Amino acid sequence: MSYVERLRQTDRLLILGIPPADELEGASRLLSDGLIVCLGDGEALPDARRRFAHLDNVMFTLGAVDDIPWRDELFTVALDRLSSWPDTPGAARELWRVLAPGGALYTPNQPTGFEPVSPGEFVKPASASAI
């Protein structure tokens, strides 16, 4: 299942990186009562904020995958648009921390602690201890 097929209008979506315009605008429409947070580096954020200022439920924040500046279990879906993670174990721990129980992670590689659902789709078990 693609992440777009899984989205519900109230989901809170974390995107690691900044996706293409058509993808972000489509997700914004689907999440009419939800939130999208794109986590990126300092160079790309000013341009993305200008280009997507018309999307009320989208925000761009400075951060790294191994140090996500959001509270525990905030996001229901996470999408990896980065080519690689600088610290895979640290990144997996952070994604585990910010994803709600049962939350889905879409990434090419299975991170520690997440259960595979289909190729590229992993879920945080609803009842599991931290990794």
Per-chain topology:
Elements: H1 3-6, E1 12-16, H2 21-30, E2 35-40, H3 45-51, E3 58-62, E4 75-80, H4 88-98, E5 99-106, E6 115-118, E7 121-123
Parallel strand pairs: 1-2, 1-4, 2-3, 4-5
Antiparallel strand pairs: 5-7, 6-7
The assigned structural class equals alpha/beta
Share of residues in strands = 25-35%
Biggest sheet statistics: 7 strands, mixed
- Unreliable segments (pLDDT under 50, ≥5 consecutive)? none
Mind telling me the C-alpha Rg? 14 Å
**How many beta-strand runs?**
7
Element order, helices and strands? HEHEHEEHEEE
Distance N to C terminus: 25 Å
Helical amount: 10-25%
Q: pLDDT average, as an integer?
A: 90
Describe the structure concisely for a colleague:
The protein has 131 residues and is α/β, with parallel strands linked by helices. The protein contains four helices and seven strands.
